[in-house]
Amino acid sequence: MMSSTDADSLYLHPDRNIAIELVRATEAAAIRSYPWIGKGDKLGADGAAVDAMRAFLGTVDFEGVVVIGEGEKDAAPMLFNGERVGTGRGPACDIAVDPIDGTSLTAAGRHNALSVIAVADRGTMLDASTVFYMDKIVTDATGIGVVDIRRPIGENLRALAKAKGKDVSELRVAVLNRERHEQLIADIREAGAGTRLMSDGDVAGGINAARYESRIDMCVGIGGSPEGITTACAIKALGGFMQGVLAPKDDAERARGEAAGLDCDRVYELNDLVRGDNTFFVATGVTDGELLEGVRKKGPIIRTESIVLRGKSGTIRRIVADHLVEKWLDDADR
Is 193 exposed, middle or buried, given 0-12, 13-18 or 19+ CB atoms closer than 10 A? Predict the structure, then answer.
């Protein structure tokens, strides 16, 4: 017979059953964004996804507090930092949401847009919301004790190649294609490695760098700090390596970060970004990518592909689901 202490422990911490409920929310957001793919309206796509995700999160039995929210990033009126979601019954959790990681990708019909939720025990996610950008480095487990964000990229690439038993020329590095990364990209190529330039969606880039079957060996560069915390929840389950350094845009943002208790000169290790291993990461493909297939309409059904990562067990699950079109899309969207 389960003791009251055991029962309380199960109740106070998110368990594996919550993952299936979270998948319903990312599936809903991805499906609702489907009519907007390639239509050039990223705000329309994002609004549809936010509405759908929030509605489904409201049915989940947990006490969720949004630590990484949509409102901070995209000036959305819902799923903002500090918002409480769920029924209020069940485990107390920190939650990071991105109804569409890659709104520009969705609007343009490009690859690698995802709908994402990450969950961890209450009080374990770093709240980096006062500093928008973070410099990150992500690899699979091979990078642990081998690479370090404080070292030059060429040195890291040579060390990683040696640890993997590869030539540097065989390495592929994911980097956001931004003006701020011109020198970084040049340095990667000068070292002999190849680049995989991303127009958006660095959550997928980080996860691909940590997956053993991926063609990406490393993900580096400055992206959103919200995406960094979200990615960290996934890296926990993948057993990968990650470091981050906050990158304030100016002195005013640095001051806001320091006032909130952040250290903009610190190298945040994976366990600093998300403490403990009781993490969940759930994503559903919006558009096709290396990680997941996007939403597909096939006659009377809509097919989604999702991934569920659990830090505690190191489990990776893929879920393919078929949904009746008539239950989801208006006549104008079919």
Answer: buried
**DSSP secondary structure letter of residue 62:** S
Q: What is the pTM of this model?
A: 0.88
Q: What is the pLDDT of residue 293?
A: 96
Going by their DSSP bridges, the two strands 194-198 and 114-121 should be labelled as unpaired
Rounded to the nearest integer, the mean pLDDT of the chain is 90
pLDDT exceeds cutoff 60 at 279 = yes
Packing angle of the helix pair 225-238, 202-210 (nearest 10 deg): 20
In this structure, what DSSP letter does residue 232 have?
Answer: H
Please choose, from the candidates 274, 246, 260, the residue with its C-alpha nearest in 3D space to the C-alpha of residue 136.
246
Q: What is the full DSSP assignment across 88-138?
A: S-S-EEEEEEEEEE-HHHHHHT-S--EEEEEEEETT-B---TTS-EEEEEE
Query: H helices then E strands: how many in the chain?
Result: 11, 14
Q: Quick one: tokens of 273?
A: 């970004």
Q: What is the pLDDT of residue 4?
A: 41
**Are 287 and 110 a contacting pair, CB within 8 Å?**
yes
Q: Which two tokens stand for residue 243?
A: 């470091």
| Residue carrying structure tokens 């959103």 | 224
Task: Quote the DSSP letter at residue 83.
Answer: -
pLDDT at res. 20: 83
What is the side-by-side order of every strand in the sheet holding 194-198?
Answer: 194-198, 172-176, 218-224, 133-139, 241-246, 268-269
Pairwise CA distance, residues 285 & 35, whole Å: 14
Could you tell me which residues come within 8 angstroms of residue 266 by beta carbon, excluding any fewer than 6 positions away? 245, 246, 272
- Identity of the amino acid at 146: V
Average pLDDT of the segment spanning 133-162: 98
At residue 135, φ and ψ (nearest 5 deg) are: -85, 130
Q: Which residue would you say has higher pLDDT here, 58 or 305? A: 305
Would residue 9 be called left, alpha or beta, if left means φ above 0 and alpha means ψ between -120 and 50 degrees? alpha
Cβ neighbors of 220 (< 8 A, separation 6 or more) are 136, 137, 138, 153, 173, 174, 175, 184, 188
Question: What integer is the mean pLDDT of 19-46?
Answer: 94
Closest CA to 61 of 12, 115, 26, 100: 12
Distance CA 246, CA 224 (A): 9
